[in-house]
Design goal:
Four copies of one chain form a homotetramer.
Chain A: E1 9-19, H1 24-34, E2 37-46, E3 53-63, H2 69-82, E4 86-90, E5 96-102, H3 107-118, E6 123-130, H4 136-141, E7 146-148, H5 156-167, E8 173-176, H6 185-190, E9 195-199, H7 211-218, E10 222-229, E11 239-246, H8 253-276, E12 280-283, E13 286-289
Parallel strand pairs in A: 5-6, 5-8, 6-7, 8-9
Antiparallel strand pairs in A: 1-3, 1-4, 2-3, 9-10, 10-11, 12-13
Helix pairs in contact in A: 1-2, 3-8, 7-8
């Protein structure tokens, strides 16, 4: 389309998951076309074109004067019903609100705050919650609320109750930015596929505590970091992104940690970016990432 | 679709390039649907959704009993005309025929022969042409024709004439697998975007001769390899793929060469694979690679 | 030294391991100097300069007319005794003899044969042993002996006895180039730190069988390969080298395998190269690699 | 040595460059041994063991009660003279003082500030100098002096005179952390091999202005960043470190910039770290990095 005035445009995103079958793309894009939506990005994937599951992400612009997203949503509904299709329609203008959970190590926290301020992270940072007071000054100086909630390991439920009171209805998702506490099923189940953790190893290697020490003991030649959605089983949720860094026999465990920090922060920030841009679909404990 | 019998299926691929505008995907996929084609892969890209150029690659299966590809092609034609659309419809079953040009270094040649025999390279190796006799025995033992055509630098046109006689109408594209002669415009213009070269540097660094020696002199910390389509300007054609390898001050130029060989071969093989699978579109001296 | 004639030079390598303490380097290099050895490469590492363990590799040239290596060895002995030093003195001119064990997948085998013929692998290929007849023709055409020894899983000891008869006193080390049988302690203990295996995962992730299938199921975003010395515990020996390759949700398990092959072969070849160049020392189930 | 009390220890580093010849290591380490220095790290390199140039870096501890570094320095002098040896003896406890020059983009500046505060960068940040006022608040809040010195392109000498007044005798080296002004020979010659620049391309590709825009136009598949010492010729000084990031046809120039920022900062920080740890020697417009 020849665009005369971008100011009246609204942006939208459509995520689709359904059993694969011929004609789906035609039908979906036809409805978008009929509602004067202009597709700006489109990506799709099928686990198997015969009897598999089909996933699609479409980003589009729509002229808000002539059409509303509600109308579009209504138009898609019969199709969704006919094809057992799960559809989600999102407005990027309505930024997702995140809570960042952090313990003592600040590199992942700083990365998220910096990227958000740079404008590369399309999210609203609603609050930072920590079991330590260490970063209060830094976070508040940047204009974000900081809640210090100590965690007594024999009474974790008290802390989690306080956390829940703060985040309930206030945030869309949670980022564990080197938060060194295991969340209880109570919190995890309240945010399905909405809690992103950074694990400081190349999963599934070194699940659990002290991965760098164990990497050192095993004598690996490459270390890694993994961002994943949190599920009830520790470090076993859908992997979103991983990256690695070459090391050698001369690295101590603490040098591994220092090197690892540089990749942990970028891996986590990338996962969060994809999450807020609706680029991730979860299927079968795995992610489809339309990056 | 629920597939009862895969034996009667034919595979097809559709490449599209046209000015971007709303509705294209709907119209194209609608025609495929109407002709009972089942889309198995689809990828698209637009240089700009407003007045940019749109590119799409669709892989599909079609039941040969009920529909022929000619019918499909005919059905697409009016659409192509209406939208100034360049369309190409390919049958993977008709493998592309390649000529491999090689000089003394054999690592890229061996990689292509091996991958083709492994079945990972969906191409027919029509012939190997070399300005040296060195690899005749190896190539013929693997069952491929080998033509030794010496090149006299004062009479390159004689050699190129012989090469052209061999390849004309016999091959679809040419791979320069470390062929250390510069092709004349005569050959280049006969195979537009159909000649793939591997250059042993990270282009645009070190265009031309002796890239490893120059990389050594410059003291770079990473070396690279670049596969690109050949155009009249030396090492300036559309880049298809690049890869790099870390080195350090201790590497001599010849150690750089030995290390470089390991990436040259995989970069070239990847580019050839994408080419024969119709995954590459060229626009504005750049490639769009739907990998 | 100003060198007038390189033809009379002999090359040597010295590996040292001992408790770390001041003065070791001085004492060792002094003896080399007194015997007119010229150091061409030197590398060292200490697990801890206070009460740790010290490792050193020195490559040198010596004028064979004036000095023999035996004399040098004798001169080092008292020092070794005084410092509880383990010393090894090697002559690169005496190439290590290797046996390659392989099953059906040929990519690692081909890489080793090719690199040896290129001259980048300073080893003698004494024989190829396989539990399948598949590669006999290829290997013999390249001039190497091929022994087909089928393995009956209920009578593995019979096959291992035959293997041992072939390799005993005939080879210095063994390379398992995608040999899909687990060696018994009988063979492993006969070649301590002299059997190199390539495992098709990023260890310690996916120890054991079918790593690509399991990587696919886990939904990792990066796959890897690991070369390690074989010990009695499966896939738990000292890691020599690892490398990785990025993948995404669109990769099937078999596409992972195809991609993985490209790194398995280079990781294995690199490990073998370091082994034959005496660049690897083993300590505490880890490797020190002076690459 | 068995260490009873680390508190009285002083750390030292010795850098050596001289014509290669047998016996150097013995002679140098002998002097260290005689002065009760305990070598904790040692690395060496020769451009050619026959008539080449030899480089060595030794880190050691010395008991300050019994020996002073001056005594050691004096003991090394005759050796240095006899072998035309350039020696430098450094005390890590005396941290190098750096001036950071920056323009509008803050990612490299923040990385240096953050790593210095983390303790991974063994340097003193003496001041930040900028031709823009943008980062004054951030830098001063972290406790470092910030000098805003605007640069009029027709009167650059005025700004450089002010910069020189600030840094002269106050800093040991300068880091150009995305400082978008070309330094004049006046400043460059005052800090030979003491000015580190980060260039936002994989040098020698895209020397000069707007490298990402040019990378976009050329259609490269990998972008890079290069840290190098500044010499009079633009972007042609000794390369210290480089790193790269894979991109694809879908990246706009501004997405390349955003991706590039993530590697620029780590490449620059690594180069600065090596510089302050005396790990870099310059020879023939190239660096030897003992990392």
């Amino acid at each position: 389309m020849i665009l005369h005035d971008k100011s009246s445009l609204r942006y939208g995103r459509l995520l689709i998951a359904c059993p694969d079958q011929p004609g789906i793309v035609t039908k979906v894009t036809r409805i978008l076309f009929d509602h004067h939506a202009n597709i700006t990005e489109s990506a799709q994937y099928s686990t198997d074109p015969y009897n598999g599951r089909f996933f699609m992400r479409i980003a589009f612009t729509i002229d808000s004067a002539s059409e509303t997203l509600d109308t579009l949503h209504n138009a898609l509904r019969p199709l969704a019903k006919a094809h057992a299709m799960k559809i989600s329609l999102m407005l990027p203008e309505k930024k997702k609100r995140m809570a960042i959970f952090v313990s003592k190590e600040e590199h992942c926290l700083l990365e998220l705050l910096w990227q958000q301020q740079m404008g590369t992270l399309e999210a609203e940072i609603a609050m930072v919650i920590s079991n330590h007071p260490d970063h209060q000054k830094t976070v508040e100086a940047m204009g974000f609320p900081y809640y210090y909630i100590p965690v007594d390991k024999h009474q974790k439920d008290i802390a989690e109750k306080k956390q829940m009171d703060l985040i309930k209805d206030q945030v869309d998702f949670i980022v564990l930015a080197r938060y060194m506490q295991i969340l209880s099923p109570y919190l995890v189940s309240a945010f399905p596929n909405q809690i992103i953790n950074i694990h400081h190893s190349f999963l599934p290697a070194f699940v659990g505590a002290k991965p760098y020490e164990r990497a050192f003991d095993r004598g690996v030649k490459i270390i890694g970091a993994t961002a994943h959605y949190v599920t009830e089983e520790l470090d076993a949720g859908p992997i979103i992104e991983q990256d690695v860094q070459r090391i050698h026999h001369g690295y101590s465990a603490s040098e591994m940690k220092a090197t690892g920090r540089l990749i942990e922060r970028t891996v986590l920030a990338k996962a969060v970016k994809w999450h807020v841009e609706d680029r991730i679909l979860v299927h079968d404990n795995k992610t489809i990432v339309f990056a």
